[in-house]
């Protein structure tokens, strides 16, 4: 292991960062504190001064196998010796073909057609385009709107922002320049709650009122992620599937955060036993190594898109990047080769136990756990800087936001480290 960097080099690195870099969801003139990471191994990040932190975030929910995994390292190295990149227009390559076959095998229902894109946000853009083109006839069509639920989050690009919560979401600043879609209330909370027929009646009424303009319903299955870390009953998802069938609109499942086991099932849709017409995958797809996403749809949808414009009108420069496709295939196969269900269930059990005391802390509104997701919701915005410092003092990296202190650890996180994450969350709640 390399020795820690001298204090003057750490100070220089941070000064150069501060002088040039704009971090996500952060101000530029007065940027927040950042920690310099120089290496990562297993579930730990190593800072420049030698401090090691348990990563409670899986690098924004992507590094499900942890860091520096020999299987994933080998996949990248072996592919690098063959070819780092080649355009996908008019060409193909073995990693892309094998990955598409694997995803089609695993996906629920008959999602057999695979489009490989750059990132989660781009996957949502592609899914929206697919749904809109599905309804186009010779370049036109009346179905130009989507129906979605409040409390959702689907990405940072403009098409994705337009289906995020327009009032309380992170992109409300742009609501006056985004396309106006149809929103209904957020699903009533509680994974284990009995579904309320009145909520499904609200969606039904919206489809009756706007049905001729609606191309698709888009939502995050069972867990609303960055919009608020809310869990809802699978019965609502089944009800939406039935309503989409009845009204003849497509269903888009944004599985970017929920896919590949995070909720305790391979896909969020599996909780409800349903299949969407279009599904978006990302984040854990490559195990956190490289950016890549996938959009899967049915043959029937693809045929209708082809019958209209003749092609799906999207083509990223780095579509199906061979390095990303190779590590994605290795990551998916590695997940399937392990007892990931047991691991996720073990994380869930320890988070339930470790976070239970949070319910008695002042200012705590709710404590909830599902799969490898643990959430403590406050009755006020979190003091992110103070909460982060408290977690780091406990040897854990967390990234609170809004009124939430939460964790989505790697699936390989051991029992003692899960306990450490829970203790750090309690400390962060007290501090923030």
TrEMBL record:
Single Gene Ontology MF annotation: adenosylmethionine-8-amino-7-oxononanoate transaminase activity
Cited InterPro entries: Aminotrans_3, Aminotrans_3_PPA_site, BioA, PyrdxlP-dep_Trfase, PyrdxlP-dep_Trfase_major, PyrdxlP-dep_Trfase_small
Keywords: Aminotransferase, Biotin biosynthesis, Cytoplasm, Pyridoxal phosphate, S-adenosyl-L-methionine, Transferase
Protein's GO biological process: biotin biosynthetic process
GO cellular component: cytoplasm
Subcellular location: Cytoplasm
Function as written in the Swiss-Prot or TrEMBL entry: Catalyzes the transfer of the alpha-amino group from S-adenosyl-L-methionine (SAM) to 7-keto-8-aminopelargonic acid (KAPA) to form 7,8-diaminopelargonic acid (DAPA). It is the only aminotransferase known to utilize SAM as an amino donor.
Subunit structure as annotated in this protein's UniProt entry: Homodimer.
Protein known as: Adenosylmethionine-8-amino-7-oxononanoate aminotransferase
């Amino acid at each position: 292991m390399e020795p820690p960097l001298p204090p003057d080099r750490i100070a220089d690195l941070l000064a150069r960062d501060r002088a040039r870099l704009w971090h996500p969801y952060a101000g530029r003139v007065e940027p927040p504190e950042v920690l310099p990471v120089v290496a990562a191994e297993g579930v730990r990040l190593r800072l420049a001064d030698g401090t090691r932190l348990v990563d409670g975030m899986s690098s924004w929910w992507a590094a499900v196998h942890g860091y520096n995994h020999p299987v994933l390292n080998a996949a990248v190295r072996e592919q690098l010796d063959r070819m780092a990149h080649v355009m996908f227009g008019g060409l193909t390559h073995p990693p892309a073909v094998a990955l598409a076959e694997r995803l089609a095998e695993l996906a629920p229902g008959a999602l057999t057609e695979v489009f490989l894109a750059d990132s989660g946000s781009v996957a949502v853009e592609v899914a929206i385009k697919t749904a809109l083109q599905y309804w186009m006839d010779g370049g036109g069509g009346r179905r130009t709107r989507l129906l979605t639920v409040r409390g959702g989050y689907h990405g940072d690009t403009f098409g994705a922002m337009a289906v995020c919560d327009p009032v309380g979401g992170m992109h409300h600043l742009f609501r006056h320049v985004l396309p106006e879609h149809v929103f209904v209330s957020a699903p009533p909370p509680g994974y284990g709650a009995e579904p309320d027929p009145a909520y499904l009646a609200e969606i039904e009424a919206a489809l009756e009122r706007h049905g001729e303009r609606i191309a698709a319903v888009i939502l995050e299955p069972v867990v609303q992620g960055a919009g608020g870390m809310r869990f809802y009953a699978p019965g609502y998802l089944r009800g939406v599937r039935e309503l989409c069938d009845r009204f003849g609109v497509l269903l888009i499942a944004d599985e970017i955060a929920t896919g590949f086991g995070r909720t305790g099932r391979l896909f969020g849709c599996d909780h409800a036993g349903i299949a969407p017409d279009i599904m978006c995958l990302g984040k854990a797809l490559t195990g956190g190594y490289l950016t890549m996403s996938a959009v899967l749809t049915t043959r029937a949808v693809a045929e209708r898109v082809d019958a209209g414009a003749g092609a799906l009108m999207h083509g990223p420069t780095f579509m199906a990047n061979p390095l990303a496709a190779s590590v994605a295939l290795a990551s998916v196969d590695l997940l399937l080769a392990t007892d990931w269900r047991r691991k996720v269930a073990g994380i869930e059990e320890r988070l339930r136990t470790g976070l239970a005391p949070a319910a008695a802390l002042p200012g705590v509104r709710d404590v909830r756990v599902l799969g490898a997701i643990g959430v403590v919701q406050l009755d006020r915005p979190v003091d992110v800087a103070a909460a982060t410092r408290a977690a780091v003092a406990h040897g854990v990296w967390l990234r609170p936001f809004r009124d939430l202190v939460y964790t989505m650890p790697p699936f390989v996180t051991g029992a003692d480290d899960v306990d450490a994450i829970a203790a750090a969350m309690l400390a962060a709640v007290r501090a923030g």
